[in-house]
Amino acid sequence: MTVSKPPPPRDLVWLLLTLTFVTGVVDAVSFLGLGRVFVANMTGNVVFLGFAAAGEASLSVVASVTAVLAFLLGALAGGRLISRVDDRGHRLLRDSTLVQTALVAVSVVLAATLGAGGRLGSELLIVVLGLAMGLQNAAVRRIDIPDLTTTVLTRTLTGLAADSKAAGGKGARPVRQLAAIAAMLLGAFAGGVLQLHVSMWVALLLALVVLLVVLGILVAHKETDQVT
171: how many CB neighbours lie within 10 A of its CB? Predict the structure, then answer.
């Protein structure tokens, strides 16, 4: 007999969707402003690394390798954090988002001061943002809400299409899948507009503000739990 998994808390779903929006913003900044590299989508970086190694001059082996290594270090740090937190929900997300917010705040300062015009500024931004997104991924993987990885939509899109006939397009899951796709798209659009037409630090500031909102909600949730 298969035991069905209880539905995730609705507020946690919305918070993960918000982090998906942040991913869109950050990857827009990294791809458009840091030399065609992703700091959250590692599938893209591995493919870019292959293209760069094959001789595509517009792509950088160094940038792709840096992003992958930074992401792995962030995920490693997230794994260490997870091992210390006996929780798969709000507390884990709160602790990981706190560190992620601090890293994105550092990226705002770096973008506003060093910028991405030189090699040093670009590489530092890739490292800091890669760490932040690796940490986010580790926490979200532990929380384990289907179709809400916050960074990769391939599985979400596959599920939306493959499960549509079996489920008849009904239930919370298709809505969640569509919401995840929309969140990433809106984040990429907002980040792209700010990166292309305003400045990098303003785009990263948007990501920081959204993370602060998420963190504030999670802190308030903790205080509510303590009262009750």
Answer: 11
